[in-house]
Amino acid sequence: MTRAQRSLKDIIRHFTPNWFTMNMGTGILFLSLHESYPSALPGQDVLTRGLWLFDMVLYLIFTALLLSRFVLFPDTLGRLLRHPVQSMFLGAIPMGLVPILDGWLLFGGQIFGHAAVVLAETLWWTDAFLAVLFGWLVPYFMFTQQEHLLERMTAVWLLPIVSAEVTAAAGGLLARHLPPGVAEVIVTTSYVLWALSVPLALTIVVILFLRLVLHKLPHRDMAVSSWLVLGPLGTGSLGLLLLGVAAPAAFAGTQLASLGSLAYGVGVIGGLMLWGYGLWWWVMAWVLTLRYMREGLPFNMGWWGFTFPLGVYAAATLQLAHETGFVAFGVFGALLVVQLAGFWTVVTARTFHGMWHGYLFNAPCLSNESGGLHPRGNA
User: Fold this and answer.
1) Which residues have a Cβ under 8 Å from the Cβ of 176 and sit 6 or more positions away?
2) Could you list the residue ranges that cross the membrane (predicted)?
């Protein structure tokens, strides 16, 4: 066996779900660019479509690598599930798929017509299944087999929980493209998915606040986790807004018809309140990050936490601008997208550097074995 073949085998064995956070960050970037600057920038349409295609290719590659790991090294699945940090990133698998299916709704119809909507609906149900599966599976292992201490807790606990509300937000967008009967099922299911995620995520945020007060900041390797709280708050807000927009048409002519206008109002008010909660965490995340930067931030795949949570918060801000007509939301949302693009550019460059040199392919759940490509890598 050649050196290159051994290297590929090592990469497969040490491939982790963390890599799907790259899909999350890239996906929310093209969605945010499409929403905040619709055809306003030279080459904007080509850029967003290009990022969508790039995101799909990455997702297919990452899926093939992860499945290859579990087929070739089946013992690593159990070790992953028992790892108190790596297992959390299983939630990134369905979350990374959501922007891709949204892209089929935004761009695919111009090429494939109604078939693009059918594919997006199929992907949505697949995504919903995975989100619910990991939303129960990972906490089960947390309760029964993983070892956790309050002082070691970080916001990564949110990852397997938040995926269901990300799917719910996508359901609000998908429902607009479907006939009323199907749209009603999608919207109703999405509200259930939202409820499976947001209340539990808010509970975790409360525990996280207590942990930070009692035990102060986590190690700088987990510094970026302070941005993750924006995820459930931004997506929770966005989900209420999008479902509120979709509900009147989806419920028309059904027993729930009278709830359509109510759902819209709840979406705006509830979305605004969650957005305000997120504003507190956005400021705090900046303050904590600047403090960490004085110590130096070591790069790892956790840096993708700079992107998706910020992106969904930006998307919620832009949706609030659309629903309320307040110019301030539009301006702030556009600035958040600029921040997102800057973060994405830096993190992508560092990621490709780590991929080329191999040090990012290092599974912590296998850290007691020899054969890791580099001591650095995944957080």
Assistant:
1) 183, 245, 246, 249
2) 12-31, 51-72, 93-117, 123-143, 155-179, 191-214, 226-251, 263-289, 301-320, 326-347
Q: Read off the pLDDT band of 373 (50, 70, 90).
A: very low
Q: Does domain 3-366 have CATH number 1.50.10.150?
A: yes
Instruction: Give the chain's length.
Output: 379
61-71: buried (b, 16+ CB within 10 Å) or exposed (e) per residue? ebbebbebbee
The string of pLDDT tens digits covering residues 114-148 is 999 999 999 999 999 999 999 999 999 999 999 99
Q: What is the mean pLDDT of residues 361-372?
A: 66
- The full set of domain ranges for the chain reads 3-366
| Rg over CA atoms, the chain | 20
Entry pTM: 0.94
